[in-house]
Amino acid sequence: MLNSERRSLARFLSIYLLSTFLLFSIASWIFYDSAKYHMLSQQKELLGYESDRTIAKLRELHMSDSQRLKYPIPTNKINSVIYDTDKSYIFGTIKQKYPTNISDTVDTLQMVSTIFPHYLGAGYLLLTKAVDHTPMTELRHKILLFMLIGGLLFMVLGYYLGRLFVSPMRNAMAQMNRFIQDTTHEMNTPISTILTNIEMIETFGKCDSNADELNRIAIASKTLSHIYDDLAYLNLNHDYHRDIKYLNLSDLLNERLDYFSSMYRAKMLRVSACILENIYLDIDQNDAIRLIDNIISNSIKYNRTKGTLSIILTEKLLSISDSGIGIKRESMSIIMERFRRVDSSEGGFGIGLSIIQQIVDYYNYSIQIESEFNKGTKVTIKW
After folding, report:
1. Listed residue (294, 295, 299, 319) closest to 309, CA to CA
2. Domains, the chain, ordered by start
């Protein structure tokens, strides 16, 4: 894993685990607070039960003829004290004055009940009980254990999610590396051809204008120029200022065919062109050149030696078809993706069709690609 991927994964895991821990902490605190309130309420209910039981016992003692009175001792570790109507202490399991503030504390629960009728002169009953922290402690331990186990599980899950998170970046970097390698290779080939043929011309002296060396130099130079133009267009497309004007597409198409003449002649292609005169279109000239050049370049590059190349231009469409290697049906859905190549035998970067798609989308044209593997391809642009 590259350092950039490690940094991205570490940042993702940090944010993911921190947000997960924060969310779980809030949820756990709310759950614990609710459960604690429920537990304390259950313990407070015991005071209510004991209050009713003690008052009932006092009534029985009040009604009894026995001379020996036995104070009803509460159960469940609850202390009780009875006071007269003036809130003066009478008797109890503990000796305690009538509390001025009857409220629960962290460690003690309290309840005061009014006794009426005043059995045995008693007016008030105070019940107190120490809070049983055992269930709350056990709950905290369970919550901590749950958060620990959940944290481990979410850490593992976060790691795999992080790997998925950096996967697009890894793929993009792999594509970029392949792009750089292909760029080096693609530019190196025509440049080497130019330099080699120049050396041959210098070595053997003057050559005729139709010499093979000069023809190869022309092809290599145009290939290099086409690669450069595509890369520049792709790089500057977002900031490119278009000068849209009423362009004679017929003349431009003829010029581009002349430009590529050395390339299709070298492949001995039979070219048929049906180009209506004076077909005008509102389009930026550079966009039109990139559109035409990429379609023609692909038709030549992926064509067969001694194959056919057909160009048709009408008022409504531009159609260019070839008898080349074609495109497999399963690859048709991805051919417009940038840097995607369905055939690596002819080199290239996989940006030509992406540029065509950008131009078509910008001008709201429509593009139709018909292809049959090993039989040829037809590209039609309609406006």
Report:
1. 299
2. 3-132 (no CATH), 242-382 (3.30.565.10)
